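Data deposition worksheet. Section B asks for the primary sequence of the deposited chain exactly as it was used as input, without tags or linkers unless they were present during the calculation. Section C holds the resulting structure in token form. Section D is free text for depositor observations; keep each observation to a single sentence. Incomplete worksheets are returned to the depositor.
Section A, Depositor: J.P.
Section B:
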Amino acid sequence: MKKELKSLRTREKLLAAAMDEFSSKGYGGASVNDICKSSGVPKGNLYHNFSSKEALYLACVKETFTELTQEMQAKLSEESVTPEAYFRIRVSFFQAHPAEAGIFCGAVLFPPMELQKEIEACRAGFDAFNREILQKLIGDRKLRKGLSEGMVEDVFRQLQNGLNADFRNKKAGDSHDKLIAHEQACQTALSVFLYGILDAGGNATD
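Section C:
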């Protein structure tokens, strides 16, 4: 039992150090040696827990998307789904977790080409959640002529991929006003998106 607990703590130390390293330097610039130095874990122990730098990075990506999705699911279940609520909760998460913000942006905006398939798997739950949110935002209203749900979901995902780009350069000391401005810009973008895809003629049952 003690051995298992020690192994778990070692893994947690490595993940915390790797989160900071990959977030600040990106996948290509991150150093396994620096992760070991920062965490205080010998390199041999790192490879005992993670088979490679790639595996460690993907563990960080998976944890980021899982934590973000779980928090948004929990908090959005307590209130009506609106663009304002969606982005308020998401921005709040990234404000409280700056390392995860960097991992998120790196994975969606600058994913390592050789790991794209694995990253897709890591973010599958997040993408499914966003599809649910989009369906709730659309409700029973009709889409504009020529648009299918699949087309709308693809464009919505592209919008999601770009909305947090500026968080990559934000630091913990950035002003609250900048974060509020970012939140408002995100809300506006989604509102414009919804306006563009919805038919003004009526509901889907009309």
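Section D:
The mean pLDDT is 84.
The chain has ten helices and two strands.
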